[in-house]
Amino acid sequence: MKIAHALRAGGTSLALAAAMSGCSPSTSSTTDNGGRIRLAMLQPPRSGLTPFSDDAFKLSRWATAETLVTLDENGEALPHLAAEWKRVGDKAWEFILREDVEFHDGTKLTAAAVANTLVRATKAAPKPRILDGVQLTAEAEGEHRVRIATAAVDPLLPQRLSSPQLAILAESAYRADGTVSPVGTGSGPFKLVAVNGTSTATLDRFDRYWGKRSTAAGIDVSFVPDGTARGAALRTDSADVVEAIPVSQAPLLDSKLIHEVPMPRTNTLYLNNATGPFSDPGLRAAARKALNPGDIVKSVYEGRADVAAGLLGPALPWAAALRASSQSISEPGSPAGAKIRLGTFSDRAELPEVAVLVEQQLEAAGFVVEQVVREYAHFEKDMLAGAFDAVILSRATVLDSGDPVAYMFSDFSCKGSFNIAHVCDQEIDRALEKASSTEPGPERRAAVMAAEAEILKRDVAIPMLHERVIQGEATGVSGVARDPRERALIMAQSSASRGAH
Known about the structure:
The protein has helices at residues 2-21, 56-61, 111-123, 157-160, 227-235, 281-290, 293-299, 319-322, 350-365, 380-385, 405-412, 426-437, 442-456, and strands at residues 36-41, 69-71, 77-79, 82-87, 92-97, 136-140, 145-150, 190-196, 200-205, 218-223, 241-242, 258-271, 305-307, 339-345, 368-374, 390-396, 461-473, 477-478, 495-496. It has 501 residues and is α+β, with helices and mostly antiparallel strands. The strands form four sheets. Strands 1, 8, 9, 10, 11, 12, 13, 14, 15, 16 and 17 form an eleven-stranded mixed β-sheet that branches. One of its GO terms (biological process) is peptide transport.
């Protein structure tokens, strides 16, 4: 199998090398620590790089579009384009802007520009998901002061404003036809100067950046959906930084060039609490006892994942220390002959393989398993309708605010919009309400973990493993972010040292 991977990589690497080898006309040399960074990315733009879509995360990873605040590793808000902020009522906040920020089109960062972006975000279709269920208003109060309010009390407003989907662009970014163009309208250390459809993008150093001037002269981006080709790009020195190298490619690469980054993503077995065998808490406890996630990590992920101790993994560094006991409150029942319908989807290549092992482990305990695997587009409707007794899902546990409460509410509360476990438990809801209403900080984190314990001890869902992403960095690359939230990648201090090409 490894030989086949290597043979396939040969052809794809030549094409990628050709695509990435040409120097940008704006800087024709790549001298030590002063050249351009060649970046191979997993997915091409899906929405024309509009910041109100998931494409915003590309703009953030290229350090071209910036937000009012950023987050530390614990999810706490830190100043960025906003120098400071304060609450001016239960539902309103006042943000004071930096006065030395210039957009790439030459205009200045002002309160009017900030209000323009935020108001447009509230009217976008579809709306940025960070604003789902949030009614937000923004008004300029002078040149550098913005008042931002919500219809309901929202202690997480500063964290919401860290979402790349709320990056502040110059007013020239917003076109009369309703489209938004980030080309030449951001404020970061790199200026986006060209986008070639879904093939490439080019960014140059922005010399008038308000912060530290970038080390690299620019970034040359290639979109490379094929995982074998991305692995080959690193192996053949066709790229300096490579996103999301598949596990299958890792053994073919120099271990010094790959770095595993824990992701806030948990592979979980959701059990249907409302109907079928798993409406019996004893059978849910039996399923939990039957699973051996360590075998799944070893065989499917080749050891490049973390066995789950809870819903929240090592990408949230505070979770493990605060984890409360989640021992099952039910004694395992006898699964002998219990028929269950196990479903998952094929869009994520590893999930069908995980399903095979889960089926084997459940059958070894006495369950009778029917396995169903479909493309997600043909799977979600039945999943949400409760057509399966158990579902294997790879789920992001930290959404755009950097806080896990929204995910837990969505998946495990009585009114959750993604409640595929079909659970409705008053103790869980009370714990989630407490976590949601607690101000950000240590007390909120403790409340989050108390809610996790309430979910786990009822065997509502069984977390199996926490995923990692493999990031490639060529020899001579330094200063690149390894960000579990996938917001940051190329930074002002990033550089790639190599000879001329």
